[in-house]
Write a structure and sequence with these properties.
The structure is a single chain. Helix 2 (about 20-50) crosses helix 4. A hairpin with a 6-residue loop joins strand 3 and strand 4. The strands form 2 sheets. The chain has a two-stranded antiparallel ribbon with strand order 1-2. Strands 3-4 form a two-stranded antiparallel ribbon. The protein contains 4 helices and 4 strands, in the order ααβαβαββ. The two termini are about 55 Å apart. The protein is about 55% helix and about 5% strand. The chain has helices at about 1-15, 20-50, 75-80, 85-120; strands spanning about 60, 85, 130-135, 140.
Amino acid sequence: MLKGFLQEFKEFAVKGNVIDMAVGIIIGGAFSPIVNSLVKDIIMPPIGFVMGKVDFSNLYFSITPTDEVYATLKEAQEAGLVTINYGTFINTLISFLIVSFAVFLLVKVINKLKTEKKEEVVEEAPAEPTTKECPFCCSEINIKATKCPHCASIV
């Protein structure tokens, strides 16, 4: 079940269609501040604590050669260092995964509702008749009968 669910998520994330993408853009724009706060304020602090009290938003690599060590990304940037901000990238990546998964779940529910609606609209074809009426006594007889059991007429 989980494997099929993950496969379906992968297909959604890779292929998608115009409606899925439009929904993703709208929902992503609406949920981005919430998800960013969730990642920055709720998810990353415990992960950083477990990893030795690391603040991911301050993880960077300086391209500019320097002997000084700066405690925060902001201090390094204010000192004029050129930095690769991989901690911020990790936060953004986690935010993206959460938003895309939420959109996937939303589209999955919408598609399920559309499918159920289509099934309601489809009318069942009338079943093949299993009986017929005897032309002589007007009794109901089996459709395969060649002789009426009520009046003994050949039908």
